[in-house]
């Protein structure tokens, strides 16, 4: 952390020096255009992003050698939109068909009756009315307290994602993560830095870009952009904020490592992360399908891979070769601190998710229980159970459910706990 603070102090001193020079210059030149140019010059200063004695001129294409350029990153945006389109097609066709083969069907839920007063409170105040507000809401809506509680249960249930939506999302991510893992393996299998990590800095920063590295980078960056664009419509879990931080940190890390030609280190880091994510998504798929033992076995394999790759290889091998080993080759500079700072953010997220994974494993291993995602909102099952009790009471009273709906077990408690 001290070295990171040193890097931040360095860029701040550079900022103050250049701002003083700009501010004491010709007044006519201090306009908005020059201000933007000044900020750009400050940001891209060679002494911030390169070891001493090296600069942008060393990364100019020459003699058939092609280097990474910041402008290449714009390709990731159309790739991200292609991913979003492919996802819609995949989820509505392949994932839906696969769900039907595994017996996952959409279940009907009774919608809450239209009530402007209750809807306004639900959207702007709280999804769970306090006891003090119940009387006032009953007066405004003309409902009894029992009807009020029933309305809020049904309204909350409307917002909860159905099982098939979760299955579709997990299926899409499984396919993409598996594809990314295979692509990374193809791109790295014959590279010396996969087996000797110190090779990633050999010749840095004048490292040419291979076509396999180019497409591996652009596809990965485009995919994480698509995840960031779709996060608002995806199933929200308890680690929603951590997911946002992860996506932003990953996009920044991929972009920065590309611009600064940390490509060898970047491909290794991406490949390491892709090596276990597809296992988690496949475990979710079997979980939603009710394949209890298969889900548990895959989850055990995933937990082992995750802990080995994220808590052993990443901090003790990758971080060592990005934090310690480079200091034997050149003096530290701000880009060095910034790159490793982003890796530390990822490592903190690794520890957070590892704690959830270990807690899940300890929960189901001794009693052979079904794997339940710690990130899921447990109220999903609680409220559904209340609705089941309510439906059973309606059946006893009237012999059939009101509103013409048939009985469905929305929480899948006995067959498949929602992941």
From TrEMBL:
UniProt DNA-binding region: 120-163
Signal peptide, first to last residue: none
InterPro entries named among the record's database cross-references: HD, Homeodomain-like_sf, Lag1/Lac1-like, TLC-dom
Location of the TLC domain: 165-366
Ranges for domain Homeobox: 118-162
Gene Ontology terms: cellular component: endoplasmic reticulum membrane; nucleus
Superkingdom in the source lineage: Eukaryota
Localization (cell): Endoplasmic reticulum membrane; Nucleus
Membrane topology summary: Multi-pass membrane protein
SMART domains: TLC
Keyword Acyltransferase: no
TM spans (from-to): 73-90, 174-194, 214-232, 294-316, 336-358
Catalytic reaction list: sphinganine + octadecanoyl-CoA = N-(octadecanoyl)-sphinganine + CoA + H(+)
Pathway annotation: Sphingolipid metabolism; Lipid metabolism; sphingolipid metabolism
UniProt keyword Endoplasmic reticulum, yes or no: yes
GO molecular function: DNA binding; sphingosine N-acyltransferase activity
Chain positions covered by the region annotation Disordered: 375-419
Compositional bias segments (type: Basic residues): 410-419
Acidic residues composition bias: residue spans: 379-391
Keyword annotations from UniProtKB, A to Z: DNA-binding, Endoplasmic reticulum, Homeobox, Lipid biosynthesis, Lipid metabolism, Membrane, Nucleus, Transferase, Transmembrane, Transmembrane helix
Protein's name in the database: Homeobox domain-containing protein
Organism classification: Eukaryota, Metazoa, Chordata, Craniata, Vertebrata
């Amino acid at each position: 952390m001290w070295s990171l603070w040193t890097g931040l102090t360095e860029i701040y001193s550079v900022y103050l020096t250049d701002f003083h020079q700009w501010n004491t210059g010709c007044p006519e030149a201090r306009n908005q255009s020059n201000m933007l140019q000044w900020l750009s010059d400050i940001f891209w200063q060679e002494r911030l992003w390169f070891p001493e004695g090296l600069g942008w001129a060393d990364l100019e294409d020459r003699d058939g050698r092609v280097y990474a350029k910041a402008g290449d990153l714009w390709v990731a945006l159309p790739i991200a939109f292609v991913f979003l389109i492919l996802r819609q097609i995949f989820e509505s066709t392949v994932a839906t068909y696969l769900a039907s083969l595994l017996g996952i069907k959409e279940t009907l839920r009774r919608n809450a009756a239209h009530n402007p007063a209750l809807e306004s409170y639900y959207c702007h105040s709280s999804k769970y009315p306090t006891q003090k507000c119940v009387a006032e809401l009953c007066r405004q809506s003309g409902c009894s307290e029992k009807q009020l509680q029933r309305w809020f249960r049904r309204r909350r249930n409307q917002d909860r994602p159905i099982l098939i939506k979760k299955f579709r999302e997990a299926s899409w991510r499984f396919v993409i993560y598996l594809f990314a893992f295979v692509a990374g393996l193809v791109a790295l299998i014959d590279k010396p830095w996969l087996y000797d990590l110190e090779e990633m800095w050999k010749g840095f920063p004048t490292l040419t870009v291979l076509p396999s590295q180019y497409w591996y980078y652009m596809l990965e960056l485009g995919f994480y952009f698509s995840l960031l664009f779709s996060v608002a419509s995806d199933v929200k879990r308890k680690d929603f904020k951590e997911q946002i931080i992860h996506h932003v940190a990953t996009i920044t890390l991929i972009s920065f490592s590309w611009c600064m030609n940390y490509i060898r280190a970047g491909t290794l880091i991406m490949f390491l992360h892709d090596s276990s994510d597809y296992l988690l998504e496949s475990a979710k798929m079997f979980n939603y399908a009710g394949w209890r033992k298969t889900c548990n076995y895959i989850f055990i394999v995933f937990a082992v891979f995750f802990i080995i790759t994220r808590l052993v290889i990443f901090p003790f091998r990758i971080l060592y070769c990005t934090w310690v080993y480079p200091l034997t080759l050149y003096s530290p500079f701000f880009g060095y601190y910034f790159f490793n700072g982003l890796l530390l953010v990822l490592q903190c997220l690794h520890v957070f998710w590892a704690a959830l994974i270990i807690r899940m494993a300890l929960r189901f291993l001794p009693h052979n229980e079904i794997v339940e995602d710690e990130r899921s909102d447990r109220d999903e099952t609680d409220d559904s159970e209340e609705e089941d009790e309510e439906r059973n009471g309606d059946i006893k009273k009237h012999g059939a459910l009101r509103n013409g709906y048939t009985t469905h077990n929305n929480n899948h408690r006995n067959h498949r706990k929602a992941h």
